[in-house]
TrEMBL record:
InterPro entries: PorP/SprF_Bacteroidetes. Residues 1-20 form the signal peptide. It comes from Pedobacter panaciterrae. Keywords: Signal. This is Type IX secretion system membrane protein PorP/SprF. The lineage of its organism: Bacteria, Pseudomonadati, Bacteroidota, Sphingobacteriia, Sphingobacteriales. It holds the Pfam family PorP_SprF.
Length: 338
């Protein structure tokens, strides 16, 4: 039995590197790319707060569930006019054709933020806490380029008490398991954006750290691996009041193949929006959102699983509540990068 316990703990240390990504998966990153790219820190004139929860693979015991909070804001007291940090006039629609046609890039500025993510999968819990910083450079009349960094700590916990065995015995291997470890964390990002166009690339978890939950030198197999993201999108107008934004994201986590997401959002005056997403060989997703007020917005998504997991799960739920503090222009706006 002890050998079997060591094997379980060794596999836990591997953190399913060979099967899936180590960081949480999101469907609504398209409404909050800041979760994946620190270069977005301070891209808006208001303080952007997001609180979210994801329940993945409903119907499967101990399936992943993720909670997060993100906050980012620009540094400085000045309000910048006619640029991505502001709106054309108080009360105007920030997605109007007029705003797009008269858009100018924001002056160079700084931004920062905070991200905390709690991810739980069976006996494993992971808490990532990062502070982010970005510098937004004015490249041309209608373009900005920002670069950002995220630095913080990752705490990985293992609940040995949740492991149950048929014979009811308590194995010494579980008593001696390493139940908590803290590792440094570092991420980098770059973001190019204008009135209708955005493109970005980022890397998370670039400090490769060894992971182990067994006090045995023979089981030192696990490690963290970098996560790479590349995304781009473009907004165009279907009519005077309706805009459409197609986007795509490529994600690479070794040794798995590249993951591809294709997304589409339709927005009505930026007050209501619906969308769809397709993740190759994994799922379809339906998304919807509403600006409840000039302060609060709410988005929801549901993933329809297309992989073999659809035999045992009905899909995944994700809900995000957003707040826009210091929204001095008092408009129904959300992050304009998607």
């Amino acid at each position: 039995m002890r050998k079997n316990i060591y094997l379980i703990l060794a596999l836990v240390s591997l953190n399913v590197v060979a099967l899936a990504q180590q960081r949480p998966q999101y469907t609504q990153y398209i409404f909050n790319n800041y979760l994946l790219n620190p270069a977005i820190s301070g891209i808006e004139n208001y303080t952007d707060i997001k609180v979210g929860y994801r329940k993945q693979w409903v119907g499967i015991n101990d399936a992943p569930q993720t909670s997060f909070v993100s906050v980012n804001w620009k540094l400085g007291d000045d309000y910048l006019w006619r640029n991505p940090l502001s709106l054309p006039d108080k009360g105007d629609n920030p997605m109007s054709r007029n705003y797009m046609q008269n858009y100018t890039a924001s002056p160079s500025h700084h931004g920062m933020g905070i991200i905390a993510v709690l991810d739980e999968v069976g006996p494993i819990s992971r808490l990532d806490a990062n502070i982010t910083y970005a510098y937004h450079l004015q490249m041309a009349n209608q373009l900005n380029l920002s670069v950002g960094v995220a630095a913080g700590l990752t705490r990985i916990g293992f609940d040995s008490g949740s492991l149950q065995f048929h014979d009811g015995e308590i194995e010494p291997a579980t008593r001696n398991a390493i139940e908590s470890q803290v590792k440094p964390d570092l991420g980098l990002g770059i973001w190019l954006y204008g009135a209708r166009f955005f493109a970005g690339a980022s890397a998370q978890q670039i400090l490769s750290q060894k992971l182990k939950f067994v006090n045995d030198p023979g089981f030192n197999l696990g490690k963290e691996v970098p996560h790479f993201f590349v995304t781009t999108g473009y907004r165009f107008f279907v009519s005077e009041e309706i805009s459409a934004t197609p986007s795509v994201m490529f994600k690479k986590v070794s040794p798995t193949p590249v993951s591809i997401d294709v997304n589409m959002k339709l927005s009505f005056k930026d007050r209501f929006w619906i969308g769809g997403s397709y993740r190759k060989d994994d799922s379809f997703a339906a998304l919807a959102g509403v600006n409840i007020s000039k302060l609060i917005n709410l988005t929801y998504s549901y993933d329809f699983v297309t992989s073999d997991l659809n035999r045992v799960t009905n899909g995944s739920h994700e809900i995000v509540l957003g707040f826009q503090l210091n929204n001095v222009y008092e408009v129904f706006s959300t992050t304009k990068m998607w």
